[in-house]
Design a protein that fits this description.
The protein is of the alpha/beta class and 621 residues long. The chain is built from 23 helices and 22 strands. Helix 7 crosses helix 9 (226-245) and helix 17 packs across helix 18 (482-490).
């Protein structure tokens, strides 16, 4: 029997199967009770977890697992890759980075019983590929311990002294470890039972005696993890010892996999029970966008038919409890024909970088199929929108076997026509090349859609595993329009296109010449009778007064509890490149040239010269 314990200490996404067994370490001191076995049962040292770290779990298995033929340990965010496929090697202790745990993780990393049995049949132990400290500027492991913040070299030397006293013949292996540059990190391994018992019987007496000899009374929380730090070095010394004294013992070295986002994907609400026809709508927001979220909600309820029940779900990136309480009361003003629920997403996507004006809440929609497991379809709307038409028709749209329904992006079409340069990571290639080559959409670049309005067929999204594919993508490289680009990349050919009225973006007159004739006609028709207004880009009503339909925003914003704050900010706001009191540059060769130069500049350069740009624009007025 193979048993690989996976250490947990807080609420994270749980990974388990017939081989991987979750275990809560440090349970004796934890206020959290996880639904798994814990290291405070049987004979244990659970209370020593602040110093021993994951080694309290190793101790528990040593004293309480009396059956497993192979025993191993991994962590909630660090696993060994048992697959035979070549992996990209990272140069840090973190190993091969992936975005988050998904349905394909176990298979991709070979962490299935069948595969692990095959690997372990060829060896007595599986250990991580060693980390070479020369890659971070140190000559030896002793140098690295001496120079690392939170480590004290006297503790390192105390461990050597203890080995000299307990196992004098083994000092040579400690010295070889200390003078070498290779570390087997993180206390991650899988050992055959006899080897596991030999390791534990060797290492724990050392750690116990070191604990007696060192003084940690003045250490901070990080420094008090000293036994855990030393155990990594002792593990390396043990591998050197076994290879020297048991030359027939076979080890397999496998790369480590580091999970960047380990937060459990929250579960959303159950569909509402009501006699009315339900329209389920989702939006993502954090506290900064709270006033605009409230505006969107009022616009939806104002526009909805009285025979409809508005099921509004907020993917919450950190909204205050007071604001949530106030928003939940909105349906009462409409005869109780709806509800507003919140899904806490504040612990998700923390390791994924954003740029420009984007926030992490933009990523939340990528995992909607996982969050709303009991829903078949939902309508996602961006927070910088207002709805001025009943959504019944849109929500009932037949997606014709496609996973989503969305609107073609006319703003991107104008970028294509203008040959607007993309981000530096894509070598600032023109927009069309960015979509065709960088996103891999080829000739389908004309089908690039705007992600502000998306009708999700969640059953098809789950069936086609889009969430896991997109989450892998956002961690592998940088995208111009972040998750919108990732959605387009993955859903190419699986989109039913909606009328532009359902996601109306205002196109500035300076951009109109770059639209084709059919796109111009489409835009002009939707301008006559838009159904959802999307205030994307620079022309946001709460920033400036350039949007010709911006008054719609204020109609609904006046109903919200944050209206005065938004109005005050608008009135007092300093001029931006297209700010209050300024007008956009007029058409003309010079101004069009300046606009193209501005767009091509990196964001950091824009921030530096922004005051100069404002003065130039003001001078034109």
């Amino acid at each position: 029997m193979i048993k690989i314990y996976v250490n947990y200490f807080s609420n994270n996404k749980i990974i388990s199967n017939s081989v991987l067994e979750p275990i809560q370490v440090g349970k004796a001191l934890s206020p959290v009770a996880l639904d798994m076995i814990a290291d405070d049962t049987g004979e244990n040292i659970s209370k020593k977890n602040p110093s021993y770290c994951e080694m309290t779990g190793v101790y528990w298995a040593w004293k309480n697992d009396r059956q497993s033929e192979y025993i191993g340990f991994m962590h909630y965010r660090r696993f060994l890759d048992f697959s035979s496929s070549a992996q990209k090697r990272d140069t840090t202790l973190r190993g091969t980075g992936i975005g988050r745990l998904d349905d394909d993780f176990l298979n991709n990393c070979g962490l299935t019983r069948q595969n692990m049995v095959q690997v372990l049949a060829q060896c007595e132990g599986v250990i991580p590929e060693p980390f070479n400290v020369k890659g971070i500027g140190y000559k030896t492991l002793e140098d690295q311990y001496r120079g690392t913040k939170g480590h004290h070299i006297k503790d390192f030397m105390a461990a050597k002294s203890v080995i000299h006293d307990l196992y004098p013949d083994d000092v040579v292996f400690f010295e070889k470890m200390a003078s070498g540059s290779l570390l087997y990190p993180c206390n991650i391994f899988v050992f055959k039972r006899d080897l596991f018992l030999e390791y534990c019987a060797w290492v724990f007496p050392i750690l116990e005696e070191v604990e007696k000899r060192i003084d940690t009374s003045g250490y901070n929380q990080q420094e008090k993890r000293v036994i855990g730090y030393l155990s990594e070095r002792l593990f390396t010394a043990f591998i050197l010892k076994i290879r020297a004294t048991h030359p027939h013992t076979r080890f397999k070295e496998r790369p480590m996999v580091f999970i960047q986002d380990t937060a459990a994907i929250p579960s959303g609400p159950k569909p509402p029970r009501t006699d009315l026809s339900v329209i389920s709508i989702v939006a993502s927001s954090d506290q900064a966008y709270l006033p605009h979220l409230a505006t969107l909600i009022y616009s939806i309820f104002d526009s909805a038919q009285q025979t409809k029940f508005v099921d509004f779900i907020v993917l919450d990136g950190g909204i205050s409890e007071i604001d949530k309480t106030i928003l939940k009361k909105i349906p009462a003003s409409y005869g109780g024909r709806g509800r507003i629920t919140f899904v806490d997403m504040s612990k998700n996507f923390l390791d994924i970088k954003v740029h420009s004006y984007f926030t992490r809440s933009t990523f939340y929609r990528l995992v909607l199929p996982d969050i709303l497991k009991d829903y078949q379809r939902v309508l996602f709307l961006d927070t910088d929108m207002v709805v001025i038409s009943d959504l019944t028709e849109l929500f009932a749209t037949d997606t014709q076997g496609k996973a989503i329904a969305a609107v073609r992006d006319l703003a991107m079409a104008s970028f294509v026509g203008e040959k607007t340069p993309s981000i530096i990571e894509a070598n600032r290639v023109p927009a069309q090349d960015y979509i065709s080559d960088y996103l891999g959409m080829g000739d389908a670049y004309k089908d690039y859609f705007q992600a502000g309005t998306i009708l999700f067929n969640l059953d098809l999204m789950r069936e086609r595993h889009y969430a896991s594919k997109m989450m892998r993508d956002i961690t592998q490289k940088k995208y111009w329009f972040l998750d919108q680009d990732v959605l387009n990349k993955n859903l190419k050919g699986d989109v039913h296109f909606l009328d532009h009225q359902w996601n109306f973006l205002f196109i500035h007159k300076n951009n109109m010449p770059y639209l084709g004739a059919s796109d111009k006609a489409l835009y002009e028709d939707s301008l006559k009778a838009p159904k959802i207004l999307h205030f994307a880009g620079a022309l946001k009503p709460w920033i400036n007064d350039e949007h010709p339909l911006g008054f719609y925003y204020w109609v609904f914003a006046r109903k919200t509890h944050r209206y005065e704050a938004v109005l005050k900010q608008y009135v007092n706001k300093k001029a931006t490149l297209y700010g209050p009191g300024t007008k956009a540059p007029q058409s003309g060769f010079v101004w069009n040239l300046l606009r193209r130069v501005w767009r091509a500049l990196p964001p950091d350069v824009k921030r530096i010269i922004h005051p100069i740009a404002i003065q130039i624009v003001k001078g034109k007025q």
